[in-house]
Amino acid sequence: MEKKIRIGTRKSELAMAQAKWVEAELKKLNPQLETEIVGMTTTGDQILNKPLSKIGEKSLFTKELERALEEGKVDMVVHSLKDLPTTLPPGMIIGAICEREDPRDAVVMKEEHRTKRLTCLPAGSIIGTSSLRRAAQLQRRYPQLTISSVRGNLNTRLRKLDTGDGEAAFDAIVLAVAGITRMGWADRISHVLSHEDCMYAVGQGALGLECRDGDAAVLRLVAELADRPTRLSCVAERAFLRQLEGGCSVPVAVRSQLHDETLHLTGGVWSLDGSQEIRRTLAVQLPAGGDGDGDDGDARPGCSNGGGDGQPPHFVAVWAPSSEHARLAAAEKLGVDVANLLLQLGAKPILEAAKAANDATTG
Ligand code: DPM
């Protein structure tokens, strides 16, 4: 590729670290490639005083970046996949999902509690998170603890924990292992939460590379960074979320595992206080096909909008080579099936009540 590749990203330290990682991986595979990282501030970065779930607008962290992509000011945008809505604006596509880090959440304790687990904290201890998903699950498992909102970027949150500044004196905060690790703070993790304690967000721990659909050169380039197992899991998770019509404003969580070509997906929904829970697991045996690692083969990046072979062009906005289409269709169906099962079991009123209650309180 002759031209310089401009990589768009938010300006937070985490987002910058993620963009630099992608840039380095691209250069490993293409030593001649010229690249530039373009950092941008988004609406979401400017509203620091409200919990995410209360800001009320989807794509808060992605809109400005997508405009730059559309206008050709950047050639791709690096996102935490969990911040990318399941439906993208027309003309945009997730060209690749990179290998997932540990998708789980972790507890970071205040210094004096460092070696303790959540179970050992005194009643009334304050746990900081503004994720409704974490709050509902933790409240259910640990009713003796108090969950309190904390926002700001990761640096700000850790500082609030360590200095006791701000809205509450937190005893611990809960964050994604992936983010803490990418910031170089893995040593601050007191313990990782099991799936019984807290399932993770859709797409958590994976990076999504958003591109212009039809930009064959860039799609070909990013396809080299795609990780097949991560893509399968994340397509199932995203299909689950889309079918539930969930987002940041409701407590929804997942867990997925790929063992010997069988994909297992657990989905859950909770009331805001965690008192109600619906959680089920389904599995699918993925069809054989493709060429093993599946990322080149007959891949024709950029032709995703009209293969003429009757296949859907992409899966929950994720591009894939046609050698993977049958498996991804199965993964997508798994996500839809788990969502439909939860809906049959009464997920809808729980989600609607959570949405209404969340909208009614002021942030
Ligand atoms: C979304 C949520 C949060 C982020 C909601 C959720 C956490 C918000 C909060 C959709 N995006 O997880 O239920 O704690 O107030 C975000 C983080 C990462 C990506 C930080 C984190 C980490 C990297 C990754 C914010 N987005 O969750 O600790 O998961 O790849």
Describe this structure in words.
The protein has 363 residues and is an alpha/beta fold. 33% of the residues lie in helices and 20% in strands. It is built from eleven helices and 13 strands. The chain has helices at 13-29, 43-46, 52-55, 63-70, 132-141, 154-163, 177-182, 216-223, 228-244, 325-344, 347-360, and strands at 5-10, 35-40, 76-80, 92-97, 105-109, 126-128, 146-148, 172-176, 191-192, 207-212, 252-259, 262-270, 277-285. Strands 2-1-3-10-4 form a five-stranded mixed sheet, with helices on both faces. A five-stranded mixed sheet has the order 7-6-8-5-9, with helices on both faces. Strands 11-12-13 form a three-stranded antiparallel sheet. Helix 9 (228-244) packs parallel to helix 10 (325-344). It binds ligand DPM.
What is the gist of this entry?
The chain is of the alpha/beta class.
Describe the protein's topology:
Elements: E1 5-10, H1 13-29, E2 35-40, H2 43-46, H3 52-55, H4 63-70, E3 76-80, E4 92-97, E5 105-109, E6 126-128, H5 132-141, E7 146-148, H6 154-163, E8 172-176, H7 177-182, E9 191-192, E10 207-212, H8 216-223, H9 228-244, E11 252-259, E12 262-270, E13 277-285, H10 325-344, H11 347-360
Parallel strand pairs: 1-2, 1-3, 6-7, 6-8
Antiparallel strand pairs: 3-10, 4-10, 5-8, 5-9, 11-12, 12-13
Helix pairs in contact: 9-10
This protein binds ligand DPM.
